[in-house]
Design brief:
The complex is a heterodimer.
Chain A (H helix, E strand, L loop, with lengths): L3 E14 L6 H11 L5 E14 L3 E5 L6 H9 L6 E6 L3 E4 L12 H11 L4 H15 L14 H13 L5 E5 L7 H16 L3 E5 L3 H7 L2 E6 L2 E6 L1 H11 L1
Parallel strand pairs in A: 3-7, 3-8, 5-6, 6-7
Antiparallel strand pairs in A: 1-2, 1-4, 8-9
Helix pairs in contact in A: 3-4, 3-5, 4-5
Chain B lengths: L10 H6 L1 H17 L6 H21 L7 H23 L1 H4 L1 H6 L6 H27 L10 H26 L2 H15 L12 H7 L3 H13 L7 H25 L3 H4 L1
The chains are: A alpha/beta, B mainly alpha.
């Protein structure tokens, strides 16, 4: 039981789609008088269940709109499911479109501290990791410059270096390996594999089927908010490719 | 669709993120003053300019008869600025960090709280300026000054409650930001900032003092300028109002925050 690190049990997530966001106050009042909801409902996840064992790497594939990102966010805890349960045993680090919390006016180092804190790291922890983070990013002396002066590649590298150095038990990765040049991508893949060997659990959401096969032990194919197929990455990817 | 799941919540979880609050406060202060030549002096310049302006208008033109009018004014103006800037900055703090909210989980309260604490630091800096003025105007400093931290604490609770309330609503309805500006504009006048409480007609006084900010401003002035203790009766009426505001504000925020990432 204990080596199930991630347990997703019958998770449903729906969205209310209202056409105009800015008119919401007006709409709310109008709806109050009409007594009806003028929303369209859309279920992005329809009863998803799976679990991930410690040290396992699971890839999630599917078309656009299949529910991959929603599933990812529900696991991160930024979205709450309407129904179902998610149990996560351990600390999560989410490699998202990196650099979400970066502030352009602050230097690379200052941003490392700020974002480390956003990931829930203590100051000491960041200090301990600082040289690793800087080295992995390959930013060198630019680390002392405000990051508004960075190129987008440098941004991404800094973000990735930070996220990957969080002491996490579970690493959630969403499409990040698409950033940076080939060399940096290679470095990232290696690092992820390395972490897997250390017993860190990986959940990887991607369109990049090659890297799913390359990194993962198991793949899950999402379609219309449901799990269509689950199994060995190569087999799932082959089946998936037949339908595209 | 109506099934609500409130997220688990614990003080321990919150404490785990104290580093984040600290970092946000530092960032807020750094970014605000980093790219300006005068830097942190802007924090002092603003109340000084307002003080001169208000003194000209109310002391010279309207002839409100109060001794040491510039200091009298500062005693009310500084706490008010702390109050109003906290509310208006924090109300947009969630929407401003849409990117973060959508991507990473952390207790959402941290964003408005960070803004408020950075405003508090700003307030403390301006308080130092006030003390210089008190000395320059030869106001006698008394042990009643020890009440200042207590007043700051009371004010903080009020600010946190209101800020969380407005920040949560503003995330759903952008209109709230504009409504808040109106509220603050009007609220300014029902506080004894540029006039003394004694100018409020007696029959309105008890109604007037239901406004906790009026009590707080009045108390700051008693303590700082007049060397008196705050009016205990007034504080006792303000206390439940502040406590209620705090609890309601936080509850409303907690009720709504799990949907922030969806509507941003």
């Amino acid at each position: 039981m204990k080596d199930k690190v991630v347990e997703v049990h019958n998770v449903w997530k729906g969205f209310r789609m209202s056409k105009e966001r800015s008119a919401m106050l007006k709409e709310t009042f109008i709806n109050l008088f009409r007594g009806g909801n003028k929303y369209e409902e859309f279920w992005a996840l329809r009863g998803i269940s799976f679990s991930v064992k410690r040290g396992e790497a699971v890839g999630i594939i599917g078309r656009n709109g299949a529910g991959k990102s929603t599933l990812f966010k529900v696991m991160c805890g930024t979205l709450w499911p309407e129904k179902g349960k998610i149990k996560i045993n351990g600390r999560i680090s989410a490699l998202i479109e990196l650099a979400a919390g970066f502030h352009p006016e602050l230097t690379g180092i200052e941003n490392i501290y700020l974002n480390g804190a956003i990931y829930g790291m203590s100051k000491k922890e960041v200090e301990r990791k600082l040289s690793d983070i800087i080295e992995f990013s390959g930013l060198d002396r630019f680390i002392h410059f405000p990051i508004r002066t960075y190129s987008s590649g440098m941004y991404a590298r800094l973000g990735f270096s930070l996220a990957i150095n969080v002491d996490a038990d579970i690493l959630l990765i969403d499409e990040v390996l698409a950033v940076g040049d080939a060399e940096f991508r290679e470095k990232c893949s290696d690092k992820i594999k390395q972490m897997k060997h250390k017993g860190i659990t990986v959940v990887y959401v991607s369109h990049n089927l090659n890297s799913i096969v390359n990194i993962c032990d198991r793949a899950i194919w999402l379609d219309m908010g449901e799990i269509k197929l689950e199994g060995k990455p190569q087999r799932i990817v082959d089946e998936y490719l037949k339908t595209v | 669709m109506a099934i609500r799941r409130l997220r688990p919540h614990s003080i321990a979880e919150f404490l785990q993120y104290k580093e984040l609050i600290r970092n946000l406060v530092i960032r807020d202060l750094k970014v605000r003053y980093k790219r300006s030549i005068l830097g942190v002096f802007w924090a002092l310049l603003e109340p000084l300019v307002l003080m001169i302006l208000f003194t000209v208008v109310f002391s010279i033109v309207f002839r409100i008869k109060v001794e040491n009018y510039p200091v009298f004014l500062l005693c009310g103006l500084l706490p008010w600025k702390f109050f109003s800037s906290s509310l208006s900055y924090s109300s947009s703090s969630i929407a401003q960090h849409a990117n973060l909210i959508k991507k990473i989980y952390f207790p959402r309260e941290i964003l408005p709280l960070g803004v408020i604490l950075s405003r508090l630091v700003n307030f403390l800096i301006t308080l130092a300026l006030l003390f210089l003025f008190l000395l320059a105007f030869k106001v006698k400093l008394t042990p009643y000054l020890l009440f200042v931290p207590l007043l700051i604490l009371l004010q903080l609770f009020l600010i946190v409650g209101l800020s969380l309330f407005f920040a949560a609503l503003n995330t759903f309805y952008n209109d709230v930001e504009f409504i808040l500006e109106f509220i603050l504009f009007g609220w300014f006048y029902v506080n004894p900032i540029f006039y003394p409480v004694s100018m409020v007609p007696d029959r309105f006084l008890s109604l007037y003092m239901l406004n906790p900010m009026a009590v707080i401003v009045h108390s700051y002035r008693n303590v700082l300028l007049y060397g008196q203790g705050p009016d205990v009766g007034q504080l006792m009426t303000a206390l439940p109002v502040i406590a209620l505001t705090f609890v309601i504000g936080w509850m409303v925020f907690r009720r709504l925050d799990y949907r922030f990432a969806e509507v941003l």
